[in-house]
Predict the 3D structure of the following.
Amino acid sequence: MTGGSLGFLRAVRGPVMLITLGALLAVDQFGSLSFARTWPALLIIFGMFKLVEYTGART
Amino acid sequence: MKRASVVAPLLLIGIGALFLARNLYPDLPLVDYLAKYWPLLLVVWGTVRLLEICIWAATSKPLPSIGVSGGEWALVAFLCIFGVSLHTIHGLSGWWPHNGFAGGVNIFGESFEYPLAGEKPCAPAPRVVIENFRGGARITGADTSSVKVTGRKTIRSLEQSDADRADHESPFEIAGDASRVIIRTNQDRVLGPPRLSAEMEITVPKGASIEAHGRNGDFDVSDIAGDVLIVSDNAGVRLQNIGGDARMELRRSGLVRAANVKGMVELKSRGSDVEMEDIGGPVTVTGSYSGLVQFHNLAKPLRYSGVQTELHIERVPGQVRMALNDLTASNLVGPVRLTSRSRDVQISDFTNTLDISVDRGDIDLRPNQTPLARIQAHTRSGDVLLSLPPAAPFTLTASTGVGEAVNDFGPPLTTERERRGGTVRGSVGGGPVVNVQTERGRVSVRKASPDDAPARPVHLPGSSSSLKRIDQ
Protein backbone atom coordinates (compact mmCIF):
# COMPACT_ATOMS: atom_id res chain seq x y z
CA MET A 1 0.00 0.00 0.00
CA THR A 2 1.36 3.41 -0.86
CA GLY A 3 1.94 6.22 1.59
CA GLY A 4 -0.68 8.27 -0.25
CA SER A 5 -3.52 5.85 0.45
CA LEU A 6 -2.35 5.46 4.06
CA GLY A 7 -2.59 9.22 4.42
CA PHE A 8 -6.07 9.11 2.90
CA LEU A 9 -7.11 6.43 5.38
CA ARG A 10 -5.85 8.49 8.28
CA ALA A 11 -7.61 11.55 6.93
CA VAL A 12 -11.02 9.90 6.52
CA ARG A 13 -10.84 8.12 9.88
CA GLY A 14 -12.10 11.14 11.81
CA PRO A 15 -15.06 11.91 9.53
CA VAL A 16 -16.13 8.28 9.38
CA MET A 17 -16.00 8.02 13.19
CA LEU A 18 -18.04 11.22 13.41
CA ILE A 19 -20.70 9.90 11.03
CA THR A 20 -20.90 6.64 12.99
CA LEU A 21 -21.24 8.51 16.28
CA GLY A 22 -24.01 10.67 14.83
CA ALA A 23 -25.79 7.63 13.38
CA LEU A 24 -25.63 5.72 16.67
CA LEU A 25 -27.01 8.70 18.58
CA ALA A 26 -29.76 9.10 16.01
CA VAL A 27 -30.65 5.41 16.38
CA ASP A 28 -30.70 5.94 20.12
CA GLN A 29 -33.27 8.69 19.69
CA PHE A 30 -35.35 7.31 16.88
CA GLY A 31 -35.27 3.59 17.55
CA SER A 32 -35.26 1.03 20.27
CA LEU A 33 -31.49 0.42 20.34
CA SER A 34 -29.93 2.60 23.01
CA PHE A 35 -26.46 4.08 22.64
CA ALA A 36 -25.48 2.16 25.78
CA ARG A 37 -25.81 -1.02 23.71
CA THR A 38 -24.39 0.12 20.39
CA TRP A 39 -21.27 2.10 21.39
CA PRO A 40 -18.83 -0.82 20.78
CA ALA A 41 -19.45 -0.29 17.06
CA LEU A 42 -17.26 2.80 17.41
CA LEU A 43 -14.39 0.68 18.80
CA ILE A 44 -14.82 -1.88 16.02
CA ILE A 45 -14.64 0.75 13.28
CA PHE A 46 -11.66 2.44 14.88
CA GLY A 47 -9.99 -0.97 15.22
CA MET A 48 -10.65 -1.79 11.58
CA PHE A 49 -8.98 1.44 10.49
CA LYS A 50 -5.98 0.63 12.66
CA LEU A 51 -5.83 -2.91 11.27
CA VAL A 52 -5.84 -1.73 7.66
CA GLU A 53 -3.15 0.82 8.47
CA TYR A 54 -1.08 -1.88 10.21
CA THR A 55 -1.30 -4.36 7.34
CA GLY A 56 -0.70 -1.54 4.87
CA ALA A 57 2.43 -0.40 6.70
CA ARG A 58 3.86 -3.97 6.78
CA THR A 59 3.56 -4.73 3.11
CA MET B 1 0.11 21.92 5.25
CA LYS B 2 -2.98 22.76 7.26
CA ARG B 3 -5.94 23.42 5.00
CA ALA B 4 -8.98 25.31 6.20
CA SER B 5 -12.15 23.21 6.17
CA VAL B 6 -15.42 24.20 4.61
CA VAL B 7 -17.24 23.10 7.79
CA ALA B 8 -16.46 26.25 9.78
CA PRO B 9 -18.03 28.70 7.30
CA LEU B 10 -21.00 26.36 6.82
CA LEU B 11 -21.45 26.27 10.59
CA LEU B 12 -21.47 30.08 10.72
CA ILE B 13 -24.01 30.26 7.89
CA GLY B 14 -26.16 27.66 9.66
CA ILE B 15 -26.13 29.50 12.97
CA GLY B 16 -26.93 32.76 11.18
CA ALA B 17 -29.83 31.18 9.31
CA LEU B 18 -31.14 29.70 12.55
CA PHE B 19 -31.21 33.05 14.34
CA LEU B 20 -32.70 34.77 11.29
CA ALA B 21 -35.47 32.18 11.11
CA ARG B 22 -36.11 32.68 14.81
CA ASN B 23 -36.45 36.41 14.30
CA LEU B 24 -38.67 36.19 11.23
CA TYR B 25 -40.91 33.36 12.46
CA PRO B 26 -40.99 33.66 16.25
CA ASP B 27 -43.55 30.88 16.60
CA LEU B 28 -41.46 28.28 14.78
CA PRO B 29 -40.43 25.65 17.36
CA LEU B 30 -36.75 25.65 16.40
CA VAL B 31 -35.60 24.47 19.80
CA ASP B 32 -37.84 21.44 19.46
CA TYR B 33 -36.33 20.62 16.09
CA LEU B 34 -32.86 20.94 17.58
CA ALA B 35 -33.78 18.70 20.49
CA LYS B 36 -35.06 16.11 18.03
CA TYR B 37 -32.56 16.12 15.23
CA TRP B 38 -29.24 17.14 16.76
CA PRO B 39 -27.55 13.74 16.15
CA LEU B 40 -28.08 14.28 12.44
CA LEU B 41 -25.89 17.40 12.72
CA LEU B 42 -22.97 15.10 13.54
CA VAL B 43 -23.77 12.92 10.55
CA VAL B 44 -23.95 15.94 8.24
CA TRP B 45 -20.74 17.34 9.65
CA GLY B 46 -18.91 14.04 9.16
CA THR B 47 -20.29 13.63 5.65
CA VAL B 48 -19.22 17.11 4.57
CA ARG B 49 -15.73 16.51 5.96
CA LEU B 50 -15.52 13.11 4.27
CA LEU B 51 -16.63 14.48 0.90
CA GLU B 52 -14.13 17.29 1.25
CA ILE B 53 -11.27 14.88 1.89
CA CYS B 54 -12.35 12.63 -0.96
CA ILE B 55 -12.38 15.62 -3.31
CA TRP B 56 -8.92 16.69 -2.12
CA ALA B 57 -7.64 13.16 -2.62
CA ALA B 58 -9.18 12.93 -6.08
CA THR B 59 -7.61 16.22 -7.17
CA SER B 60 -4.25 15.23 -5.65
CA LYS B 61 -4.25 18.05 -3.17
CA PRO B 62 -2.27 17.53 0.05
CA LEU B 63 -4.35 15.75 2.68
CA PRO B 64 -4.52 16.77 6.31
CA SER B 65 -2.75 14.32 8.61
CA ILE B 66 -5.95 13.78 10.58
CA GLY B 67 -9.49 14.26 9.35
CA VAL B 68 -11.05 15.71 12.47
CA SER B 69 -8.80 17.70 14.80
CA GLY B 70 -8.77 17.66 18.60
CA GLY B 71 -10.51 21.00 18.74
CA GLU B 72 -13.29 19.71 16.54
CA TRP B 73 -13.74 16.61 18.71
CA ALA B 74 -14.08 18.95 21.70
CA LEU B 75 -16.82 20.79 19.81
CA VAL B 76 -18.51 17.45 19.06
CA ALA B 77 -18.42 16.54 22.76
CA PHE B 78 -19.94 19.90 23.61
CA LEU B 79 -22.66 19.39 21.00
CA CYS B 80 -23.46 15.95 22.45
CA ILE B 81 -23.80 17.31 25.99
CA PHE B 82 -25.94 20.18 24.70
CA GLY B 83 -28.13 17.84 22.63
CA VAL B 84 -28.65 15.30 25.39
CA SER B 85 -29.58 17.96 27.93
CA LEU B 86 -31.95 19.66 25.48
CA HIS B 87 -33.53 16.30 24.78
CA THR B 88 -33.91 15.58 28.49
CA ILE B 89 -35.42 18.98 29.23
CA HIS B 90 -37.97 18.55 26.50
CA GLY B 91 -38.82 15.09 27.76
CA LEU B 92 -39.25 13.74 24.29
CA SER B 93 -39.62 10.10 25.06
CA GLY B 94 -41.02 7.74 22.51
CA TRP B 95 -42.09 10.54 20.23
CA TRP B 96 -40.98 9.04 16.96
CA PRO B 97 -42.21 7.60 14.77
CA HIS B 98 -45.42 8.97 16.13
CA ASN B 99 -47.74 7.22 13.71
CA GLY B 100 -45.52 4.18 13.57
CA PHE B 101 -47.09 2.87 16.76
CA ALA B 102 -50.46 2.54 15.12
CA GLY B 103 -49.34 1.07 11.84
CA GLY B 104 -46.96 -1.41 13.41
CA VAL B 105 -44.17 0.14 11.36
CA ASN B 106 -40.92 -0.63 13.01
CA ILE B 107 -37.41 0.13 11.99
CA PHE B 108 -35.56 -1.54 14.80
CA GLY B 109 -36.81 -4.79 16.23
CA GLU B 110 -40.23 -6.24 15.61
CA SER B 111 -43.77 -5.49 16.72
CA PHE B 112 -45.51 -8.06 18.86
CA GLU B 113 -49.24 -7.70 19.39
CA TYR B 114 -51.39 -8.79 22.30
CA PRO B 115 -55.17 -8.43 22.49
CA LEU B 116 -56.84 -6.17 25.04
CA ALA B 117 -60.42 -6.60 26.16
CA GLY B 118 -62.58 -5.84 29.16
CA GLU B 119 -66.05 -4.77 30.17
CA LYS B 120 -67.49 -3.31 33.34
CA PRO B 121 -71.13 -2.40 34.14
CA CYS B 122 -71.54 1.17 35.32
CA ALA B 123 -73.97 3.99 36.14
CA PRO B 124 -75.65 5.97 33.31
CA ALA B 125 -73.26 8.92 33.79
CA PRO B 126 -69.95 7.54 35.01
CA ARG B 127 -66.60 9.23 35.10
CA VAL B 128 -64.24 7.19 32.95
CA VAL B 129 -60.59 7.62 33.82
CA ILE B 130 -57.80 6.41 31.57
CA GLU B 131 -54.51 6.26 33.37
CA ASN B 132 -50.99 6.65 32.14
CA PHE B 133 -51.75 5.75 28.62
CA ARG B 134 -49.50 5.52 25.59
CA GLY B 135 -50.95 4.83 22.16
CA GLY B 136 -54.29 5.69 20.60
CA ALA B 137 -57.75 5.65 22.14
CA ARG B 138 -61.08 6.08 20.42
CA ILE B 139 -63.85 6.77 22.92
CA THR B 140 -67.43 6.71 21.72
CA GLY B 141 -70.69 7.28 23.57
CA ALA B 142 -73.46 4.77 22.94
CA ASP B 143 -76.75 3.55 24.43
CA THR B 144 -75.15 1.10 26.79
CA SER B 145 -74.80 0.59 30.51
CA SER B 146 -71.24 -0.59 30.62
CA VAL B 147 -67.76 0.52 29.73
CA LYS B 148 -66.37 -1.78 27.10
CA VAL B 149 -62.79 -1.88 25.86
CA THR B 150 -61.37 -3.74 22.91
CA GLY B 151 -58.05 -3.27 21.24
CA ARG B 152 -54.51 -4.40 21.13
CA LYS B 153 -51.22 -3.78 22.78
CA THR B 154 -48.17 -3.44 20.60
CA ILE B 155 -44.76 -4.14 22.03
CA ARG B 156 -41.68 -3.31 20.06
CA SER B 157 -38.81 -5.53 20.91
CA LEU B 158 -35.95 -7.45 19.39
CA GLU B 159 -37.06 -10.76 20.85
CA GLN B 160 -40.37 -12.46 21.54
CA SER B 161 -39.35 -13.35 25.10
CA ASP B 162 -38.71 -9.67 25.97
CA ALA B 163 -42.13 -8.79 24.55
CA ASP B 164 -43.86 -11.58 26.49
CA ARG B 165 -42.22 -10.43 29.70
CA ALA B 166 -43.26 -6.83 29.03
CA ASP B 167 -46.81 -7.99 28.30
CA HIS B 168 -46.87 -9.92 31.55
CA GLU B 169 -45.58 -6.90 33.51
CA SER B 170 -48.28 -4.62 32.12
CA PRO B 171 -51.63 -6.34 32.71
CA PHE B 172 -54.70 -4.55 31.39
CA GLU B 173 -57.39 -3.86 33.98
CA ILE B 174 -60.70 -2.06 34.42
CA ALA B 175 -61.06 -1.00 38.03
CA GLY B 176 -63.15 1.41 40.08
CA ASP B 177 -66.88 1.33 40.81
CA ALA B 178 -70.08 2.05 38.91
CA SER B 179 -69.73 5.83 39.06
CA ARG B 180 -65.99 5.98 38.46
CA VAL B 181 -64.45 3.49 36.06
CA ILE B 182 -60.68 3.36 35.80
CA ILE B 183 -58.98 1.92 32.72
CA ARG B 184 -55.38 0.99 33.37
CA THR B 185 -52.91 -0.26 30.82
CA ASN B 186 -50.03 -0.28 33.33
CA GLN B 187 -47.64 0.56 30.54
CA ASP B 188 -45.54 2.59 32.93
CA ARG B 189 -44.59 -0.53 34.86
CA VAL B 190 -42.28 -1.55 32.06
CA LEU B 191 -39.16 0.56 32.27
CA GLY B 192 -37.01 1.36 29.25
CA PRO B 193 -37.17 -0.72 26.08
CA PRO B 194 -39.10 -2.62 24.88
CA ARG B 195 -41.57 0.11 24.11
CA LEU B 196 -45.28 -0.37 24.53
CA SER B 197 -48.26 1.24 22.95
CA ALA B 198 -51.92 0.37 22.91
CA GLU B 199 -54.80 0.97 20.56
CA MET B 200 -58.12 0.96 22.35
CA GLU B 201 -61.71 1.24 21.23
CA ILE B 202 -63.71 2.27 24.27
CA THR B 203 -67.49 2.37 24.30
CA VAL B 204 -69.05 4.30 27.17
CA PRO B 205 -72.61 5.28 28.13
CA LYS B 206 -73.70 8.55 26.47
CA GLY B 207 -73.78 10.40 29.79
CA ALA B 208 -70.14 9.67 30.61
CA SER B 209 -67.41 12.16 31.23
CA ILE B 210 -63.84 11.33 30.28
CA GLU B 211 -60.59 11.97 32.05
CA ALA B 212 -57.47 10.76 30.27
CA HIS B 213 -53.88 10.95 31.35
CA GLY B 214 -51.44 9.95 28.67
CA ARG B 215 -47.78 9.98 27.88
CA ASN B 216 -48.00 9.87 24.15
CA GLY B 217 -50.74 9.17 21.66
CA ASP B 218 -53.99 10.22 20.12
CA PHE B 219 -57.42 10.60 21.62
CA ASP B 220 -60.59 10.58 19.61
CA VAL B 221 -63.68 11.30 21.70
CA SER B 222 -67.18 11.53 20.29
CA ASP B 223 -70.86 11.58 21.24
CA ILE B 224 -70.72 11.98 25.00
CA ALA B 225 -72.75 14.32 27.18
CA GLY B 226 -70.25 14.92 29.97
CA ASP B 227 -66.97 16.79 30.29
CA VAL B 228 -63.66 15.81 28.72
CA LEU B 229 -60.31 16.34 30.37
CA ILE B 230 -57.14 15.26 28.60
CA VAL B 231 -53.71 15.67 30.13
CA SER B 232 -50.83 14.37 28.06
CA ASP B 233 -47.17 14.84 27.31
CA ASN B 234 -47.73 14.50 23.63
CA ALA B 235 -51.08 14.00 21.96
CA GLY B 236 -53.32 14.58 19.03
CA VAL B 237 -56.94 15.16 20.05
CA ARG B 238 -60.20 15.03 18.15
CA LEU B 239 -63.42 15.88 19.92
CA GLN B 240 -66.81 15.63 18.30
CA ASN B 241 -70.29 16.14 19.76
CA ILE B 242 -69.37 16.80 23.37
CA GLY B 243 -72.17 17.89 25.71
CA GLY B 244 -70.01 19.34 28.49
CA ASP B 245 -66.77 21.26 28.81
CA ALA B 246 -63.51 20.20 27.20
CA ARG B 247 -60.16 20.87 28.78
CA MET B 248 -56.86 19.85 27.26
CA GLU B 249 -53.47 20.26 28.84
CA LEU B 250 -50.90 18.91 26.44
CA ARG B 251 -47.22 19.56 26.74
CA ARG B 252 -46.93 18.96 23.05
CA SER B 253 -49.57 18.28 20.47
CA GLY B 254 -50.19 17.41 16.86
CA LEU B 255 -53.59 18.30 15.48
CA VAL B 256 -56.13 19.36 18.09
CA ARG B 257 -59.63 19.51 16.70
CA ALA B 258 -62.89 20.20 18.50
CA ALA B 259 -66.22 20.25 16.73
CA ASN B 260 -69.67 20.75 18.18
CA VAL B 261 -68.84 21.19 21.86
CA LYS B 262 -71.69 22.59 23.97
CA GLY B 263 -69.57 23.84 26.86
CA MET B 264 -66.33 25.73 27.06
CA VAL B 265 -63.11 24.62 25.42
CA GLU B 266 -59.77 25.23 27.02
CA LEU B 267 -56.52 24.27 25.34
CA LYS B 268 -53.03 24.70 26.67
CA SER B 269 -50.24 23.26 24.61
CA ARG B 270 -47.24 23.70 22.40
CA GLY B 271 -48.21 22.19 19.14
CA SER B 272 -48.95 22.64 15.50
CA ASP B 273 -52.53 22.74 14.21
CA VAL B 274 -55.72 23.72 16.02
CA GLU B 275 -59.24 23.62 14.61
CA MET B 276 -62.34 24.58 16.54
CA GLU B 277 -65.78 24.64 15.07
CA ASP B 278 -69.31 25.13 16.46
CA ILE B 279 -68.38 25.72 20.09
CA GLY B 280 -71.13 26.78 22.48
CA GLY B 281 -69.02 28.03 25.38
CA PRO B 282 -66.04 30.35 25.71
CA VAL B 283 -62.85 29.22 23.98
CA THR B 284 -59.47 29.79 25.56
CA VAL B 285 -56.31 28.79 23.76
CA THR B 286 -52.89 29.41 25.26
CA GLY B 287 -49.42 28.27 24.29
CA SER B 288 -47.57 28.31 21.01
CA TYR B 289 -48.71 26.78 17.75
CA SER B 290 -46.56 26.51 14.68
CA GLY B 291 -49.23 25.30 12.27
CA LEU B 292 -52.62 26.52 11.20
CA VAL B 293 -54.98 27.75 13.94
CA GLN B 294 -58.61 28.03 12.87
CA PHE B 295 -61.82 29.01 14.60
CA HIS B 296 -65.24 28.81 13.10
CA ASN B 297 -68.64 29.62 14.56
CA LEU B 298 -67.91 30.33 18.21
CA ALA B 299 -70.93 31.50 20.20
CA LYS B 300 -69.00 32.88 23.18
CA PRO B 301 -65.79 34.91 23.56
CA LEU B 302 -62.55 33.65 22.07
CA ARG B 303 -59.31 34.32 23.88
CA TYR B 304 -56.07 33.32 22.20
CA SER B 305 -52.85 33.92 23.99
CA GLY B 306 -49.72 32.88 22.12
CA VAL B 307 -46.07 33.73 22.52
CA GLN B 308 -46.26 36.71 20.19
CA THR B 309 -49.96 37.21 19.75
CA GLU B 310 -52.88 38.12 22.00
CA LEU B 311 -56.34 38.00 20.51
CA HIS B 312 -59.73 38.58 22.04
CA ILE B 313 -62.99 38.43 20.10
CA GLU B 314 -66.43 38.63 21.63
CA ARG B 315 -68.01 36.20 19.18
CA VAL B 316 -66.98 34.54 15.93
CA PRO B 317 -70.02 33.80 13.73
CA GLY B 318 -67.60 33.63 10.80
CA GLN B 319 -64.04 32.45 10.99
CA VAL B 320 -60.54 33.24 12.13
CA ARG B 321 -57.53 31.67 10.47
CA MET B 322 -54.02 32.13 11.78
CA ALA B 323 -50.95 30.79 10.01
CA LEU B 324 -47.40 31.33 11.15
CA ASN B 325 -47.21 34.86 9.84
CA ASP B 326 -50.69 36.06 9.12
CA LEU B 327 -54.19 36.34 10.46
CA THR B 328 -57.30 36.37 8.31
CA ALA B 329 -60.72 36.80 9.84
CA SER B 330 -64.18 37.54 8.59
CA ASN B 331 -67.60 38.05 10.09
CA LEU B 332 -66.69 38.89 13.69
CA VAL B 333 -68.64 40.43 16.50
CA GLY B 334 -66.50 42.80 18.54
CA PRO B 335 -65.05 44.17 20.63
CA VAL B 336 -61.99 42.73 18.90
CA ARG B 337 -58.56 43.27 20.41
CA LEU B 338 -55.36 42.07 18.76
CA THR B 339 -51.74 42.65 19.62
CA SER B 340 -49.01 40.84 17.75
CA ARG B 341 -45.31 41.06 17.15
CA SER B 342 -45.26 39.93 13.58
CA ARG B 343 -48.32 39.20 11.50
CA ASP B 344 -50.11 40.41 8.40
CA VAL B 345 -53.68 41.05 9.46
CA GLN B 346 -56.75 41.00 7.26
CA ILE B 347 -60.13 41.46 8.91
CA SER B 348 -63.36 41.92 7.03
CA ASP B 349 -66.97 42.26 8.02
CA PHE B 350 -66.84 43.06 11.73
CA THR B 351 -69.09 44.93 14.10
CA ASN B 352 -68.35 46.84 17.26
CA THR B 353 -64.98 48.27 18.22
CA LEU B 354 -61.67 47.02 16.89
CA ASP B 355 -58.22 47.54 18.41
CA ILE B 356 -55.16 46.28 16.55
CA SER B 357 -51.55 46.80 17.37
CA VAL B 358 -48.88 45.07 15.30
CA ASP B 359 -45.13 45.50 15.45
CA ARG B 360 -44.38 44.29 11.99
CA GLY B 361 -46.98 43.44 9.38
CA ASP B 362 -49.56 44.83 6.99
CA ILE B 363 -53.08 45.62 8.11
CA ASP B 364 -56.06 45.30 5.78
CA LEU B 365 -59.44 46.27 7.24
CA ARG B 366 -62.79 45.99 5.50
CA PRO B 367 -65.59 46.90 7.89
CA ASN B 368 -68.42 46.23 5.48
CA GLN B 369 -71.17 46.40 8.03
CA THR B 370 -72.78 49.70 8.95
CA PRO B 371 -72.90 51.58 11.21
CA LEU B 372 -69.18 51.65 11.89
CA ALA B 373 -67.82 51.53 15.42
CA ARG B 374 -64.55 52.88 16.75
CA ILE B 375 -61.50 51.47 14.95
CA GLN B 376 -57.99 51.84 16.26
CA ALA B 377 -55.19 50.20 14.25
CA HIS B 378 -51.46 50.72 14.55
CA THR B 379 -48.45 49.05 12.94
CA ARG B 380 -44.85 50.04 13.42
CA SER B 381 -43.77 48.73 10.07
CA GLY B 382 -46.14 47.73 7.30
CA ASP B 383 -48.80 48.98 4.92
CA VAL B 384 -52.31 49.82 5.99
CA LEU B 385 -55.30 49.47 3.68
CA LEU B 386 -58.72 50.63 4.85
CA SER B 387 -61.84 50.02 2.77
CA LEU B 388 -64.78 52.03 4.14
CA PRO B 389 -68.43 51.65 3.19
CA PRO B 390 -69.41 54.69 1.13
CA ALA B 391 -72.52 55.55 3.13
CA ALA B 392 -71.42 55.07 6.74
CA PRO B 393 -70.61 58.05 8.95
CA PHE B 394 -67.07 58.18 10.42
CA THR B 395 -64.33 60.54 11.52
CA LEU B 396 -61.06 59.38 9.99
CA THR B 397 -57.40 59.94 10.68
CA ALA B 398 -55.12 57.70 8.62
CA SER B 399 -51.46 58.57 8.91
CA THR B 400 -47.99 57.32 8.05
CA GLY B 401 -44.73 58.49 9.58
CA VAL B 402 -42.56 57.50 6.64
CA GLY B 403 -44.33 56.61 3.42
CA GLU B 404 -47.12 57.53 1.10
CA ALA B 405 -50.66 58.48 2.15
CA VAL B 406 -53.19 57.71 -0.57
CA ASN B 407 -56.78 58.90 -0.66
CA ASP B 408 -58.77 56.77 -3.08
CA PHE B 409 -61.98 57.48 -1.15
CA GLY B 410 -62.15 60.99 -2.56
CA PRO B 411 -63.95 63.94 -0.96
CA PRO B 412 -64.74 64.85 1.74
CA LEU B 413 -61.43 63.29 2.84
CA THR B 414 -58.32 65.36 2.35
CA THR B 415 -54.66 64.40 2.14
CA GLU B 416 -51.91 66.32 3.90
CA ARG B 417 -48.33 65.67 2.92
CA GLU B 418 -45.81 65.95 5.69
CA ARG B 419 -42.02 65.87 5.45
CA ARG B 420 -41.63 62.12 4.98
CA GLY B 421 -45.14 60.88 5.60
CA GLY B 422 -48.69 62.01 5.25
CA THR B 423 -52.20 61.93 6.65
CA VAL B 424 -55.61 61.32 5.14
CA ARG B 425 -58.30 62.84 7.30
CA GLY B 426 -61.87 63.94 7.18
CA SER B 427 -65.33 63.26 8.48
CA VAL B 428 -68.48 61.87 6.98
CA GLY B 429 -71.52 62.74 9.05
CA GLY B 430 -69.52 63.10 12.28
CA GLY B 431 -69.46 59.36 12.93
CA PRO B 432 -67.25 57.28 15.23
CA VAL B 433 -63.49 57.70 15.36
CA VAL B 434 -61.51 55.62 12.89
CA ASN B 435 -57.83 55.92 13.54
CA VAL B 436 -55.28 53.95 11.54
CA GLN B 437 -51.58 54.57 11.68
CA THR B 438 -48.34 53.14 10.39
CA GLU B 439 -44.93 54.40 11.41
CA ARG B 440 -43.29 53.15 8.27
CA GLY B 441 -45.29 52.12 5.22
CA ARG B 442 -48.01 53.16 2.87
CA VAL B 443 -51.45 54.05 4.12
CA SER B 444 -54.39 54.02 1.74
CA VAL B 445 -58.08 54.63 2.21
CA ARG B 446 -60.67 53.65 -0.35
CA LYS B 447 -64.37 53.03 -0.81
CA ALA B 448 -65.46 49.46 -0.28
CA SER B 449 -66.73 47.97 -3.51
CA PRO B 450 -69.10 45.03 -3.80
CA ASP B 451 -66.17 43.04 -5.18
CA ASP B 452 -64.40 42.82 -1.85
CA ALA B 453 -67.37 41.57 0.09
CA PRO B 454 -65.82 38.88 2.20
CA ALA B 455 -66.11 35.29 1.24
CA ARG B 456 -68.95 33.62 3.08
CA PRO B 457 -67.68 31.37 5.85
CA VAL B 458 -66.59 28.22 4.16
CA HIS B 459 -66.51 24.89 5.83
CA LEU B 460 -63.09 24.17 7.22
CA PRO B 461 -61.04 21.78 5.13
CA GLY B 462 -60.99 18.29 6.48
CA SER B 463 -64.05 18.84 8.64
CA SER B 464 -65.30 15.38 8.03
CA SER B 465 -62.28 13.59 6.68
CA SER B 466 -60.12 14.32 9.72
CA LEU B 467 -62.55 12.47 11.91
CA LYS B 468 -61.84 9.17 10.32
CA ARG B 469 -60.47 6.40 12.43
CA ILE B 470 -57.24 7.54 13.96
CA ASP B 471 -55.43 4.29 13.36
CA GLN B 472 -55.99 4.32 9.66
Observations:
- The longest strand of chain B covers residues 326-342.
- The interface with chain A takes residues 36, 38-47, 49-50, 53-54, 57, 63-69, 72-73, 76, 80, 83, 87, 96-97, 107-109, 156-158, 192-195 of chain B (CB under 8 Å).
- The radius of gyration of chain B is 28 Å.
- Chain B has a mean pLDDT of 83.
